[in-house]
Design brief:
Layout lengths: L4 E7 L13 H9 L1 E3 L2 E2 L6 H10 L3 H4 L5 E2 L10 E2 L3 H10 L10 H7 L4 E5 L3 H7 L3 H4 L2 E4 L2 E6 L1 H11 L10 H19 L3 E6 L3 H7 L4 H21 L2 H4 L2 E6 L5 E6 L2 H7 L4 E3 L7 E4 L3 E6 L5 H9 L4 E6 L13 E2 L13 E5 L1 E5 L5 E6 L8 E2 L5 H4 E2 L1 E4 L7 E3 L3 E2 L3 H9 L26 E12 L2 E12 L2 E9 L2
Helix pairs in contact: 2-6, 4-6, 9-11
Amino acid sequence: MPSPHVLIVGLDGLRPDRVTPERMPTLWRLMQQGVHFRHHRAVFPTATRVNVASLVTGATAGTHGVVNNSLFVPGLFADRAVDLGKYDVVEAANAYFGGRLLCTPSLGEILAAHGQILAALSAGTTGSNRLMHHTVKRQGGLVFSAHGLAPSFPPQEATAILERFGPPPAAGTPDAARLAYLTTVFLEYVFPVHRPRVTILWFSDPDRTYHYCGIGSPAAEEALRAVDTQLGRLLDWLQQPAQREAVNLIVLSDHGHLTVRHKVDVRAALAAAGFAARHGSYEDADIAVVPWCCGALHVRQPRLLPQVATWLLAQPWCGPLFTPGKNAVEGLVPGTFARALVNVEHPRAADLIYVLRSDEAPDAHGVRGGCYDDSYLPLGGSTHGGLSPQELHSLCVAYGPAFREGYASELPSGTFDLMPTVLHLLGYPLPAGIEGRVLHEALATPAAVELPVETRTYTAEAPTPAGRYRQHLTLTRVGTTPYLERAWVEA
């Protein structure tokens, strides 16, 4: 019989190598008692809004269409990029795309078609919260943001929560007070009153604290303890008789982090090289730049694409680089990979997708992995978006009556596998467009499904004025399902 409820807890930005019995005893215990997916992977770009979209659609960016945290859509905003971190921008983008911001059915839509609801509670950005259930206004359900009434829906439910529990606490580093508030809202109101079939409970930490304070900082260590405290409350609740046989828990992180070691202004560098470039807009320029550590260049004139790409390949801060495909592996420009190789082949994708270069060296706190950054974040803070192991390798644990006990899965898994697995638990058919697989190996009664596993490394290279550029990308396929392992450029 299908379980009546699935609780998905998102621990934004948590790297699995930061989980120890001392730092996070509750999560460590869950990893031993439930199913620990030891080789869990984010989708690329390793950004929250991309992976939230993959969580609720079971698809990669090249299928669901959220190709980065911000999109270049000049028909919507002619003077800036479309920042999907804001709920009203998500609504505007969904209207612009005719209700197809997500290009494949999402979890909230599927639950509504079966007369059930999705509840999404989040301390993260209002935009990522709305992406968890972007059709809530049309199809019902509950979206509640720790940012207050305006980004929440329906307003009468948000008002009831605010009247009962008071206003959400202010954001902090660590964000402990808001995490505790959201946990209380779920335990004391959302579940007992609404009993949603699926709830997404999204914690802003450790991501928020990592960004501003650094991944190994004292504040980051405190953030991990605060997250674990709330997991302890949820585990206590799950082990009560009323929930023990009725609720399944999935705990995941959407990506990892790298320490910001160097800064670069890509738009300024383009301008210094003689290219006319603007942030998020063409206006009087030839190139629209959507910056981050995984950035996007939209080139107005196709003839400029090889020139810009060849210039990028020669920059000491440029890591892996992707262009429209010459074939399934090679990009149009020699030395680049095809966008399809990292599952970002979509009409909204940039002409050039670049990842700023990263390294494996330890930072001041002894945490491995650093990178260049093109954002507001401080040196010594941390970021994500690229293809390093530290960003791609994420956490996933499943616990409850539908899952095996004390099992460590050695098969690769990913963000986009969770939606088809949840639908399988609920007894609902999988819609078209799903790219992830049902994680049969983790179920209490595992299906006898033998899937071939193949790992392969691809290489692309080209001469540049600065020397030879040579990049590599490793991915593993389980059956036909691809999981990105890492990509890097030879020093």
